[in-house]
Inverse folding.
């Protein structure tokens, strides 16, 4: 690892029958092969930064008929002056879509020239006349994600070549597609016969992008010729009547006039219930309108009559099969997976009722699985050797009553309990999730990994309080205007219930930890006298401390305007109602504060304010500042340092 904050990804072969694997591309540190598509039966297209320029470009691999024993040499197809991303290939292998960050009304070469001029003029000044000034972890300096379309053709030598210049579908628009910061190729789709291309975009042209959640789906018409294609000069918005979010269009594999997409219905509410929509010949209908759960990524079956849906259900990400969505026969809904977290459904191109997916749980890192014969079977075993070298804490779901509802949480035993079979008195890591409209899922994660705390000898309790997702929309909505009440009461009651149900946990040696909204709750608990003395120490990662100043410093204003109650200057009492900074006088508990320097969701002054107050009051405290991290700690060495520092802080109070 010459650069321990980097990584390398390569392409692997996995035979579905023998389960034999082979690494196809040569590993080079810092090189990442990604976003793989079959262009035909023996060729895959992918993106990689292994070009001589160091930029991410389009490559191909020719796949042999038998598992290779040596690395294959990729062939570079494009050589553009900018990085490209978000690869999408039509099923005929003749059209390619990719994103590139360009200035509006500028092509790639013109964008490069503008960037060179900016670098050469010696000025380091950004000018803004609208929001966003910055978003998530980057300043918005003018370049935009635009979708480019390009035709390709396989030559007699077996190598693909471009047969057209890339066409910027959004050339004139000061807008992003995929949307930032988390949009990807699920926001685009080619129709089956290549007569249309659909894309999702945000309305970034004015400052309202900061307080509106209005995403819309547009289509452009395509006309194919022998070796090229044309794109219509105008795009058609098919969802502009809805002022909330419309996203992730996916054309039917059988009909160019039919697509599905996901949508919310409440403008300005990002965590509204996500519903499945069917667009057919200009008419939009809602599928499963009475379902209380939000629908995640959706994948068509090969016949265009049914879909596979990823759904968050009681803190598990499961897969449902929704059959006959066009109502040619009575529709039917079938649950295919029930435990852990399943993602990335990839349907077998020929055989029905078979698909590949990824799966993980609290005790198992992500691996590749296949669903066939009504059962899920693992295909990959990349983590098996590592798992044999470690002890993992067993886990179970528990529940309790709070605020007239059944509230659920996870309990993970410390791994020290495995050696002695009967758990002895163990200290407690009491984890509080962010979002707040998310959940602690039965899933593996590099951030806030339960096993890292269990491995350090801690029992783990993680509660999905009121406001969490996957328990029905009413439960999610209940946190609105109640940031410091219902969730706080659930955590209070949940701590009591956990200590009653798991008697081996030593409640006198408890540490509470949280990030984002969970960090807000840490700051709120610090000021509440009925709770702050229940913990020997607190850990706050990127948490809000002053809700009034938070409103003016954060980038996505729809969060506080919906969740807390409108514009701060029009409703200051709502922002003060559950404002942690008002209760600094009650703070007595030692706290570790962690902050990312590129976190523009919860800015660094929120954490600095907490540290200042603690130091001024003479309360034991420590602050960790990661200048290159955003709202999350993502770099490998920084992540290791995070765990080492956090667990060391906890041990200083619980293991004296």
């Amino acid at each position: 690892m010459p650069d321990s904050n980097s990584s390398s990804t390569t392409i692997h072969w996995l035979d579905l029958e023998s389960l034999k694997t082979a690494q196809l591309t040569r590993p080079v540190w810092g090189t990442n092969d990604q976003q793989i598509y079959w262009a035909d039966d023996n060729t895959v297209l992918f993106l990689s930064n292994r070009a001589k320029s160091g930029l991410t470009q389009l490559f191909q691999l020719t796949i042999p008929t038998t598992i290779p024993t040596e690395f294959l040499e990729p062939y570079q197809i494009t050589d553009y002056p900018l990085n490209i991303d978000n690869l999408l290939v039509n099923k005929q292998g003749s059209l390619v879509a990719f994103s590139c960050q360009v200035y509006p009304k500028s092509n790639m070469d013109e964008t490069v020239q503008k960037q060179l001029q900016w670098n050469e003029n010696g000025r380091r000044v950004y000018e803004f006349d609208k929001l966003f000034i910055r978003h998530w972890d980057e300043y918005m300096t003018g370049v935009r994600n635009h979708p480019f379309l390009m035709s390709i053709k396989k030559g007699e030598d077996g190598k693909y070549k471009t047969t057209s210049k890339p066409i910027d579908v959004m050339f004139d628009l000061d807008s992003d597609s995929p949307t930032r910061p988390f949009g990807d190729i699920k926001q685009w789709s080619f129709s089956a016969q290549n007569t249309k291309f659909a894309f999702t975009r945000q309305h970034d042209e004015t400052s309202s992008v900061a307080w509106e959640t209005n995403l819309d789906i547009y289509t452009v018409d395509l006309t194919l010729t022998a070796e090229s294609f044309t794109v219509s000069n105008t795009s058609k918005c098919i969802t502009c009547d809805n002022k909330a979010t419309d996203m992730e269009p996916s054309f039917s594999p059988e009909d160019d006039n039919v697509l599905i997409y996901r949508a919310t219905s409440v403008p300005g509410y990002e965590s509204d219930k996500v519903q499945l929509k069917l667009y057919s010949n200009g008419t939009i209908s809602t599928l499963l309108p009475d379902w209380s759960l939000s629908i995640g990524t959706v994948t068509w079956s090969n016949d265009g009559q049914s879909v596979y849906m990823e759904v968050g259900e009681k803190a598990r990400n499961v897969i449902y099969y929704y059959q006959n969505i066009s109502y040619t026969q009575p529709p039917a809904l079938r649950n295919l997976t029930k435990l852990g977290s399943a993602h990335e459904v990839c349907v077998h191109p020929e055989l029905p009722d078979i698909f590949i997916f990824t799966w993980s749980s609290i005790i198992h890192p992500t691996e590749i699985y296949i669903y066939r014969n009504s059962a899920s079977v693992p295909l990959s075993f990349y983590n098996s050797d590592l798992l044999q070298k470690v002890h993992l804490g067993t886990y179970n779901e528990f529940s309790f009553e709070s605020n007239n509802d059944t509230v659920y949480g996870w309990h993970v035993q410390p791994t020290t309990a495995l050696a002695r079979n009967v758990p002895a008195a163990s200290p407690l890591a009491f984890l509080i999730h962010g979002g707040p409209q998310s959940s602690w899922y039965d899933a593996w994660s590099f951030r806030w990994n339960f096993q890292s705390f269990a491995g350090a000898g801690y029992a783990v309790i993680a509660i999905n309080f009121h406001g969490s997702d996957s328990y029905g929309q009413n439960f999610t909505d209940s946190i609105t205007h109640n940031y410091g009440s219902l969730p706080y009461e659930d955590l209070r009651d949940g701590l009591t219930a956990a200590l009653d149900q798991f008697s081996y946990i030593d409640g006198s040696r408890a540490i509470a930890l949280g990030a984002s909204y969970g960090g807000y709750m840490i700051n709120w608990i610090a000021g509440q006298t009925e709770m702050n003395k229940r913990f020997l120490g607190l850990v706050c990662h990127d948490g809000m401390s002053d809700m009034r100043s938070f409103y003016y410093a954060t980038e996505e204003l729809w969060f506080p305007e919906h969740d807390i109650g409108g514009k701060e200057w029009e409703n200051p009492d709502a922002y003060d109602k559950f404002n942690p900074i008002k209760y600094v006088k009650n703070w007595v508990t030692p706290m570790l504060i962690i902050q990312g320097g590129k976190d523009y969701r919860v800015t660094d002054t929120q954490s600095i304010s907490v540290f200042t107050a603690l130091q001024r009051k003479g309360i034991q405290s420590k602050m960790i500042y990661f200048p290159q991290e955003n709202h999350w700690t993502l770099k490998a060495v920084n992540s290791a340092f995070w765990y080492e520092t956090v667990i060391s802080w906890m041990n200083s109070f619980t293991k004296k």
User: Anything to note?
Assistant: The two ends are 36 Å apart (CA to CA).
